[in-house]
Amino acid sequence: MARVVALQQNQLSFSPLASSLFDFSGTRLQTQLQFKRKLCHPKGSFYVSASSTKKILIMGGTRFIGVFLSRLLVKEGHQVTLFTRGKAPVTQQLPGESDNDYADFSSKILHLKGDRKDFDFVKSSLSAEGFDVVYDINGREADEVEPILDALPNLEQFIYCSSAGVYLKSDLLPHAETDAVDPKSRHKGKLETESLLQARGVNWTSIRPVYIYGPLNYNPVEEWFFHRLKAGRPIPIPSSGLQITQLGHVKDLATAFIQVLGNEKASKEVFNISGEKYVTFDGLARACAKAGGFPEPEIIHYNPKDFDFGKKKSFPFRDQHFFASIEKAKRVLGWEPEFGLVEGLADSYNLDFGRGTYRKEADFSTDDIILGKSLVSV
Predict the structure, then answer these.
(1) Of 12-26, 31-45, 71-85, where does the model show the most confidence?
(2) What is the spatial order of strands in the sheet that 157-161 belongs to?
(3) Which has the closest alpha carbon to 130: 66, 52, 54?
(4) InterPro entries from the entry (predicted)?
(5) Could you give the CA distance from residue 279 to residue 287 in angstroms, rounded to a whole number?
(6) Residues 159, 184 contacting (CB under 8 angstroms)
(7) Cα 44 off chain centre by
(8) DSSP per residue, 32-91
(9) Cα separation of 86 and 112, whole Å?
């Protein structure tokens, strides 16, 4: 069981752990992270450099990104506290994770229970504990971040999970970190948070993922395709299916979050993080089929303007080209994504959907509306 941080406990310490390998999948995958020199390690495992132990707070941490990030930080020897509402288990054993690794993680992770929108509680509890670094994984609005900064005036680094969705729609792609942003986007709160961090003069780093996929994904990205492939159904894709997008594996994202920690080159910088390759919607359907060992899928194209789906989404991606350059992260941080698309989708399928676990039940109601019309299959 994870230990719970009581407000009166101001001194909590653990012995640093040696740098080590951590394997979620059991597969052998090569990881190269660049620090003082290049090292070769099994792929699918994560290697992080030995560094001074930090007292780290993760806002969130029990879902998807935070699950993988917190394990890496604990393996590195940092003292890690998760700030959550306590509605989900603080720890869970992951597919492919050994009993020893899970027990080691569970014995070291700390939990601070609270609502981040209770600003008075955030200020009092965080100031009482004191933290060196904050990873904000689930922050959406700037007013949720300000109390954290007020409570931790000596904070060494604030690392923020933003989104590539902040960019203004453009004919010129891929999006770069210097591109114009859209103040009216549904991610405008993340833009305002980045502005707040800059205005407050803290040492901050912002990560902007595109679409994230991988085991435990709570958004219907790859799962949407896997449901249809498993049921042997056609896959309805809007318009031509040639729209280009980009997906990044959650484990690659976690290593990027690790590489900005204490990195002077990441100070007050924004980095796009995603996969190396871009892919069309049709190509993604085929990649999911290949990853899960399914036959070549039947793809149905339709005109979204011909249908009224009410409040339901008929497709999990925005119907447009949407992808970003990751060259800055590669150049400045020495970060490289380790998962190719099919390989990453296979990792997700084998550790999650293929084991019979998924976040949402299949809903083919919009598919049936589309398939009820005479459309051309390809």
Answers:
(1) 71-85
(2) 3-4, 110-113, 79-84, 55-59, 133-136, 157-161, 204-209, 269-273
(3) 54
(4) Epimerase_deHydtase, NAD(P)-bd_dom_sf
(5) 9
(6) no
(7) 16
(8) --BSSSB--B-BBEEE-------EEEEES-SSTHHHHHHHHHHHHT-EEEEEE-SSS-S-
(9) 8
